[in-house]
Write a structure and sequence with these properties.
The structure is a single chain. The protein is of the alpha/beta class and 103 residues long. The protein has one domain: Response regulator (Rossmann fold, 3-Layer(aba) Sandwich), CATH 3.40.50.2300. It is built from three helices and four strands; from the N terminus they run E-E-H-E-H-E-H. The chain has a four-stranded parallel beta sheet. Helix 2 links the parallel strand 3 and strand 4.
């Protein structure tokens, strides 16, 4: 399943599921079957969780080996949020790579 996470921008045709909240995306990842996700950072008002929260969840799962590798894309217009998400993605990819090279 390919997830488009964005509260405003419509889902492009190449994605399977349009989710609008970080909580929905985290639940989908927990349930399994997510092969790719594209993240927006800002998902509603200031109190809402963000795409960065999803990236941190994926990073933690990669570290704990509870989440299989996922293709991760970033489509946010928030420059600072983009950098935070990219840092988490790089860490997750590093953890996944280390596991693959150990086996």
């Amino acid at each position: 399943m390919r997830i488009w996470l964005d509260d405003v921008r419509p889902m492009p045709a190449e994605w399977d599921v349009w989710l609008r909240t970080a909580e929905q995306a985290i639940l989908a990842i927990k349930l399994g079957g997510v092969t790719a996700i594209s993240l927006d950072h800002d998902l509603g008002d200031e109190s809402a969780k963000t795409g960065y929260d999803v990236a941190k969840f994926i990073e933690e799962g990669a570290f704990k080996d509870t989440i299989a590798p996922i293709e991760i894309y970033v489509h946010t217009a928030n420059a600072a949020g983009r950098q935070n998400i990219i840092r988490s993605i790089r860490k997750a990819e590093k953890f996944w790579h280390e596991r693959l090279t150990r086996t």
